[in-house]
Each structure stands twice: as C-alpha cells, then as structure tokens.
Amino acid sequence: MIQRNNFTNDTNFLVRSAIIAALYVVLTLVVPMPQYGPIQFRFSEILVLLVFYNKKYIPGLVLGCAIANMFSPMAWFDVIFGTLSSYVAFRLMTKTDNLFIASLFPVLLVAIPALGTYFILDSTGAFITMLFSFMASEFVMVSVIGVILFKILENNKAFMKNIIEF
C-alpha cells in the first residue's frame, strides 16, 4: 500500500475545507430565501451536519459562515456572534452519536447572536424575538430538512465514505 505523505494530506484537507467554505458562501448568497435578519432560512446551514460525520469539516464551515456573514447588513455583528455561535455548536456536535441531537446544537446556540442583540439594543423584547425567530428558522433548516436529507444520504455508501473519510 502506498503511504501518502503529510503534504498530500495537508493539501487534501485545505482543498476540501476551501470547497466546503465556498459551497456554504455560494448557497447562502445564491439561494433565494431570507439569509440575514431575524428570520433566516439559510439552505447552506444544512451543511453544518457534515460536522456530525467528521470534525475536519469545522474549519471550512467556520470560514464559510464568516465570509457569508460579511455580506449581511449587520456584517460585523453577524461575523462575530454568528460565527462564534456556529463554532461552539460544531464543537458540541462532535460529542454526540445521534444526528438529530447533533442538529439541535446549532438551533440552541443561536442564543449567542440573540444575546448579542440584547446587549446592543438593551431590550429584552428584542432578545426574545430574535431568539425564537432564529431558533425556529434554524430548526426548520437543520433539524428537519437537514436531518431528513442526511438520513436519506446515509443510504448511499459511496457518498458516506467520501464524507466520513474527508
């Protein structure tokens, strides 16, 4: 068996991470759905479930999220709080062996941007509104559509082998 050297492994990792980041950004910017604001139906958020299968997807998804958030009307806010929220959710997703449970971490961690809204606006009403609207839209995209899609994709052995082996 031929052993790959570290350079090849590092290059493969960088290329795959860049592809994932680019895919996240493109799906955020191109899919005609609300992508920013209190109600966000980001189709790109389905990609976060890749972390459940392999934690090597974290850097690409964090980078993709940060870049996509730069296009937000509240770019600095979304880049800081939205990206932090995603990163923490990703780290927690690697700690479970249940896809649906893993899908709930991004839903629950939208509390971080909602909390940021509270501190910026000093308004409990804004916090509660943002929290529940963020959670509802994230739940629909990740925990409903995303989980169903990945459960279907789990039946494709070749696809899953590529995802898991990264």
From TrEMBL:
Keywords tagged on the record: Membrane, Transmembrane, Transmembrane helix
UniProt entry tagged with the keyword Repressor: no
UniProt keyword Cytoplasm present: no
InterPro entries reported in the protein's UniProt record: QueT (IPR010387)
Segments traversing the membrane: 13-34, 46-69, 99-121, 127-153
Coiled-coil portions: none
Database matches in PANTHER family: INTEGRAL MEMBRANE PROTEIN, INTEGRAL MEMBRANE PROTEIN-RELATED
Protein name: Citrulline cluster-linked protein
Protein's organism: Anaerococcus octavius
